[in-house]
UniProtKB/TrEMBL annotation:
Signal peptide: none annotated. Residues 23-119 form the BRCT domain. Residues 1-24 are annotated as: Disordered. This is Polymerase (DNA directed), mu. It comes from Oryzias latipes (Japanese rice fish). Pfam families: BRCT, DNA_pol_lambd_f. PANTHER family: DNA POLYMERASE TYPE-X FAMILY MEMBER, DNA-DIRECTED DNA_RNA POLYMERASE MU. GO terms for molecular function: DNA binding; DNA-directed DNA polymerase activity. It comes from the Eukaryota.
Length: 229
């Protein structure tokens, strides 16, 4: 009787190791994944881990200091954070993400940007969004504050931001050379931003309807935007 060979066990505790015992090189050394088995299940976790490794991601079988992204499925933000706190550790906490981030990353073949929809119910549970707060502090968001004026595009607004002009008050005091449309927009900014009343909208609709009907009988004029809603 020929003795059977002992099956060689794969070392799933090492990152970058797939279930066949081979090693896939990590394409993204700054991203280390840990898939939380809770509610995901062992078999699905093993399948997703193998998929990620084949895509070049580094996946840890145990939570460690190296982990940068913890992927959860059907876990609330409160439960996920409670579990993470129970693991201890003094390092900054990793991203705590819904499995949607994982699937988006697998589809893209690379780690995608963490968006609000990837967070574990962050807005509902904390009332804040890290993505929104980060955007509000960005220079591009600040540039939007000087863009309500007519004929001011993103390039001009970005240049003004670099020159220290962050709002319309600073723009007025800066002595910037403006074209005719920009000067008019700055001069009448407060009036332009006054909301149009329903009565004013109805009056404008009547004028437009009369003008259109004079050249195109049977034409229908409908208010759109907020008044239609």
């Amino acid at each position: 009787m020929v003795p059977l060979k002992r099956r060689k066990l794969s070392d799933t505790g090492k990152s970058g190791t797939n279930t066949s015992g081979g090693t896939e090189p990590s394409k993204f050394p700054r991203v280390v994944l840990f898939l939380l088995e809770r509610k995901m299940g062992a078999s699905r976790r093993a399948f997703l881990s193998q998929l990620a490794r084949k895509k070049g991601f580094q996946v840890e079988e145990l939570l460690s200091e190296k982990v940068t992204h913890v992927v959860c499925e059907n876990v609330s933000g409160e439960d996920g954070r409670a579990w993470l706190r129970s693991q201890g550790g003094s390092r900054p906490p990793p991203h705590l993400l819904d499995v949607s981030w994982f699937t988006d990353s697998m589809r893209a073949g690379r780690p995608v940007e963490v968006l609000d929809r990837h967070q574990l119910q962050e807005i509902l549970e904390t009332g804040t969004s890290t993505e929104v707060e980060s955007t509000k502090g960005s220079e591009r968001f600040k540039a939007l504050k000087v863009r309500p004026l007519t004929s001011i595009g993103a390039k001009t607004a970005d240049r003004w931001i670099r020159e220290g002009i962050h709002d319309l008050h600073q723009l007025r005091a800066s002595g910037q050379v403006l074209n005719r449309a920009q000067r008019a927009g700055l001069q009448h900014y407060a009036d332009i931003n006054q909301p149009v009343t329903r009565a004013e909208a109805d009056a404008i609709e009547a004028i437009v309807e009369k003008a259109v009907s004079s050249v195109l009988r049977g034409a229908q004029i409908v208010l759109t935007g907020g008044f239609r809603r």
